[in-house]
Every structure is written in structure tokens, then in C-alpha cells.
Amino acid sequence: MKELVWDRTLSVEVEEIDEDHRRLIKLFNLLARAVAEEEDAAYVAALLEELVCCTAWHFRHEERLMLKHGYEERAAHEQEHSELIDGVRELQRDFLATGKRLADADIEYLERWLAEHILVADMPLGAHLAGLV
Ligand SMILES: [Fe+2]
Q1: pTM (predicted TM-score)
Q2: How remote is the CA of residue 65 from the centroid of ligand 1, in Å?
Q3: In a domain, 83, yes or no
Q4: Total number of domains constituting the chain
């Protein structure tokens, strides 16, 4: 099983955001491991819910920082947040409704979902906030 590892290449240079990202990566790894080890569905569902809630909370955190520091790309970034949450909620709904196991493809989707958000969307936000927070 492939684990996501947080390192300096994932840093957005704002400690409070990096701290959230490390937490999300830790939850993702727990979920990926639970799926690989075929843990029972209730445990996987609990981890998925924790990841979704933690991500939603993290997005509110970033949105507050964007507001406080007048980030010009705020509307686009918030739009991306809402699409990311919709995507993972859909995966979660399917999982709960069908009772099927999460597949490797679902884990790969979540991995991309997390890494791309950090690497693509949060880097310019971090650059804007660095030194301000
Ligand atoms: Fe983020």
C-alpha cells in the first residue's frame, strides 16, 4: 500500500495550514491502510466520515484566512473547496448506499484529490499568506 508522506515539497510555508494538511494526510493513510487490510465497513465508514469532516473544517479555516488577509483568488478557491467536498461526499454516499468495499481506484481518487488540492490550489494561497499570519 502506498502511503502519502508529508515533506517540505508539500509545505505551503504557512505553519497553521501545513499542520492541517499533515492531519488530513494522516487520516488518508489510516483510511488507505484500513481498506488494504480489509477492515470492516463500519470502521472504514467512520474513517471516511472523519476525513470528510476534517477536510470541511480545514476548508473553513482557509476561507477565514483568505477573508482576513484579502486574498484576491478567494472566490475561485472557495469554489474549488465546494467541488472537492461534493466529490468526496458523492463517493461517501455511494459507499454507504451500496455497502460495497472501497476499491483501489477510490483510494487513488482520494490521494489525487488531496495532493492536487495542496500542490495546486494551496501553494499560491500559502505564498500570499506567508509572512502575514
Ligand atoms: Fe488546504
Answers
A1: 0.91
A2: 11
A3: yes
A4: 1
Q: Determine the Cα–Cα distance for residues 129 and 123; give it in Å rounded to an integer.
A: 10
Query: How far away, in angstroms, is 49 Cα from ligand 1 center?
Result: 18
- CATH number, residue 106: 1.20.120.50
User: How far does the centroid of ligand 1 lie from the alpha carbon of residue 82, in Å?
Assistant: 12
Find the 44 Cα to ligand 1 centroid distance in Å. 23
Which residues neighbour 92 within 8 Å (Cβ) at sequence distance 6 or greater?
48, 49, 52
- What is the chain's pLDDT, residue by residue, as a tens digit (133 residues)? 778 999 999 999 999 999 999 999 999 999 999 999 999 999 999 999 999 999 999 999 999 999 999 999 999 999 999 999 999 999 999 999 998 889 889 999 999 989 888 888 899 999 999 877 5
